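Students often ask why inverse folding is considered easier than folding. One informal answer: many sequences map to the same fold, so there is more than one right answer. In these notes we will look at a single instance of the problem. The structure comes first.
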């Protein structure tokens, strides 16, 4: 009886993983988006990051993955805006992107999705 319960539980987790992987992960699309951002803003971003004392040493691709939002749909919409805002000093420090901006962008996107704000 216990073995059957474990088997059912394993099947359940496998199904959940497959559903999640098909709906949330698209690494090819992610690479395409980040490649475009790096191509467009790479030199400006490198210059800004080299002066930022809060930036942990990592590659720019890793940095984009680090600041990406939990919701891939929101990443596509807002990642370039976040990078541009950082380069233009709208966001002063790298650490502010995750500590402050993530929650604001997620809240904004949620309000837009629920049609509480005009786009």
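Output (designed amino acids):
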């Amino acid at each position: 009886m216990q073995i059957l319960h474990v088997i059912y539980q394993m099947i359940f987790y496998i199904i959940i993983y497959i559903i999640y992987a098909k709906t949330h992960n698209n690494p090819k699309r992610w690479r395409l988006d980040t490649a475009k951002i790096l191509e467009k803003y790479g030199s400006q971003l490198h210059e800004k990051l080299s002066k930022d004392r809060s930036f942990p040493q990592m590659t720019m691709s890793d940095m984009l993955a680090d600041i990406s939002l939990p919701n891939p749909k929101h990443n596509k919409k807002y990642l370039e805006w976040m990078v541009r805002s950082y380069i233009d000093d709208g966001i002063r420090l790298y650490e502010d992107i995750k500590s402050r901006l993530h929650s604001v962008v997620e809240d904004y996107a949620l309000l837009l999705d629920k049609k509480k704000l005009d786009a």
